[in-house]
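From the pipeline queue, job 12 of 40. The input is one protein chain; the requested action is below.

Action: predict structure.
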Amino acid sequence: MNKRSARIANIAFLLLGLGLLIGVLLRMDMTEIGQQLLRIGPLFLAAFGCYVLAVLGSSAAWWSMTDPAASRARFHHFVAALWAGHAINTITPTASLGEVFKGTMMKGRIDGQELVASLISFNFLATLITQLFTMIAPLACLALLDLSSEVMWSLFGVACLFFLPVIGMLALLRFGAADKVVRLAGRLPFVRIKDPANLLAKAKAVDLRIQSFPRRRPGRFCLALALLVGVRLMQVAEVWVLLLALMPDKSPTWILLLALVTQTASQLIAWVMTFVPSQIGVAESGSALLFQLLHLDPLLGLSMEVARRLRKLIGTAIGLLIGWWGMRASHSLRN
């Protein structure tokens, strides 16, 4: 797909999502949605704080996955690159362009091979932890909540299906992902590699760094795992805080379990609908449908997602500003 076709597809999916969002909002009582959002009030700041803590935790995890012997980047460099890259992933389909931008922002601060290795390792660990949460959440709700078992088993089944590629990714990393990608690219008729031997050597070096890092830096590796678990908990906490305001008649523990399964459903929707920028429309309709299937008021699920959409807009704007400032600063330094 060329750039023009990709741009047209991006706009088409964005318009599709917007249309879906407008359709869902029109079917609901807009006055009631406004009242629900007003009930959130100051707790929106607490939810936004959970988001900021998740960004900082993710940045710290990436820093932990980087060998300090091959890096002169400081913690705020990781925060800036990760926040900006996340913002770009939010507004583009498939959430991949932001990874390239992260590498661009960190270029010159981390050894090239270490940069690629740390990004691959960080993204894999983040995906692994997220996948484990998506499988645990429905089982916990089955055991502790009196909600629709059919919905929980369905979410668990979908989560298990998404775990299969993670097993494949683990095997690929174990046996050399970068090496195999380069070899595969070299066999494609439309790909021309200028110096295949040199690129293959670099790919093997990246694979060696990925495979040996847990043995060379076990403390940093375990710290990254712990931080990524904390990040996931902060993502659940964001939903929990919003639902506390929307469902004051329920106990905090009950709402915490509901937040866990709601975040799981949102994550699965994000993976399924990754081609829709920021999952606009599908996230809101998905949460409303989840609450309806759980015999809860769908307006509560929609209101929660609308509040999160506002948080995403603010967080994305901050990330884009950080990215613009960072690239401008890098350009000034080069000149």
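Job complete. The chain has a mean pLDDT of 83.
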